[in-house]
Structure formats: C-alpha cells, structure tokens
Amino acid sequence: MPTRKQPQPAETADNRAFNYDLNYQTLNLREHPELYRVGKGEMGVLLVQPYKSEILPHWRFKTPDIARESSEKIYQLFLDYKAKGDFIGMDMARKYLQMGYTRARRYANHRTGQKYDGPVPDDKKGQSGAHGRDQLPRDEDPVKAESARIFYAKYVQAREDPDYKQLRKAWQEMYG
Hints:
Blueprint: H1 51-55, H2 64-83, H3 87-109, H4 142-159, H5 162-175
Helix pairs in contact: 2-3, 2-4, 3-4
C-alpha cells in the first residue's frame, strides 16, 4: 500500500511568513498544525481550513448591530479555541476580527469598498499596494465607521489576550 506523502513546511528565508504554496483546498491544518505560519496581519484568513469554514459564516459588518453580533460570535469562537488549547483557531479568529475592522473601515472610507481608481495592471496583479493607481477620495460613512469600531475593540481584546500572546510566542519559537 503506497504511503501518502505528508505536506512539508516551505523552505523559505523567513519561515514566519505565511506559506501560500500549500494546497489549502485539501489541507486540514488541525491535522497538520506544524504547517501553519502566523504571517502578518490577515494573511491566509480566507484559506486555512477547517477554521475558515467555522468562522467565515459568522463574519458580517453591514450595520453596527450586525457587526456587534458577528464580532461577539467570533470572539466567542476565539475563547472556545483557547479553552481547547487550539492556537491556530485563536489566531484565525483574531484575523477575522482584524479583517472585520479593516473591511468595515474601507467601506466607511469608500462607499463601494473600492480604494483605488481603475483596475490593477496585468503586470502588477498579485502584488500588494496601489501600483501607482490614484486613491479614490474618501467619504465617511458613520454606520460603517461604527461597525469598524466594534470590530476593532474585539480585535484588540483578542490580540492582547495574555494567553494568546504567550501561545503565539511559543508557536513562533517552535515552528519559526
């Protein structure tokens, strides 16, 4: 019987960077936690399974009431993962709270959610940043701004949780 090849961490100069080369459609990081990298900010938030399937259905920010319910549910998931000692789950919940803040803030600043004028040039796709495009003018939407504030408060609560900080440090020392 042939053995299934186990996925391996990417060999990169900075092993702390999120590894976008793994096949996240089939990879269950609860079964292979050694492959998880925290990365920066929200890296991998829409890829990492089974956490994406567990958290994403609760992620909403259209109104302050919806944002409050959503951020409280995601923060409760953070606490549930914490109770299970599941650092990846905690980190993914933290990323969804951060993404709730950043996306609500973007819609607060730009009614359509589009930050830059025009499409990304073909030779710049897949790179971060504005790529020389002009940023569209801002128009403050107080409803989305309040949604952003709600998510930000829960994001900071998760980010500053002493157990999360300790587990994150230990994770990075162990796995890079």
